[in-house]
Design goal:
Blueprint (H helix, E strand, L loop, with lengths): L4 H22 L4 E3 L6 E3 L7 E4 L6 H4 L5 E4 L1 H6 L4 H12 L1 H9 L9 H20 L2
Antiparallel strand pairs: 1-2, 3-4
Helix pairs in contact: 1-6, 4-5
């Protein structure tokens, strides 16, 4: 896989999401509870949880969205196609119908970013990740 500014930004964002959800769901920095099935998974390392999207797609409008991405196990995110029904139930409960509708409206929206913007996003999420580790 070619390493691009976009892929590096995604990697930093994904790490941040998994750490955020580990702290939120288990109070640790090592494990998280899958947003859709409730199973405990390692947040990092081989066989770890993934940062799963409520709205599938790799378009810029839904790719980097803290509200629309949560820690998911591989089975829910990959094998079950995101476990969309369960994901939506959780999203409605946690964020309400207005936010869910807004996220759904972004499904076909493409947001183009320049290389320098992806680099800024990468740095932003590296910083946020470190701040979570530092307890800030």
């Amino acid at each position: 896989m070619k390493v691009t500014p976009k892929s590096k930004a995604w990697d930093a964002f994904s790490k941040y999401i998994r750490l955020r959800d580990a702290i939120k769901t288990t109070g640790t920095i090592t494990d998280l509870i899958c947003y859709t099935c409730g199973t405990r998974y390692p947040a990092f390392g081989k066989g770890c949880a993934q940062a799963g999207h409520f709205i599938p797609g790799r378009k810029g409008a839904v790719l980097i969205d803290e509200i629309g991405v949560h820690g998911q196990c591989y089975n829910c995110n990959h094998n079950l196609g995101g476990a969309w029904v369960e994901y939506e139930e959780h999203m409605l409960k946690d964020y309400g119908p207005e936010i869910v509708a807004k996220l759904k409206a972004n499904k076909h929206k493409t947001l183009k970013r320049e290389s320098w913007e992806w680099k800024e996003i990468e740095e932003e999420y590296k910083t946020k990740y470190q701040e979570l580790l530092d307890g800030k």
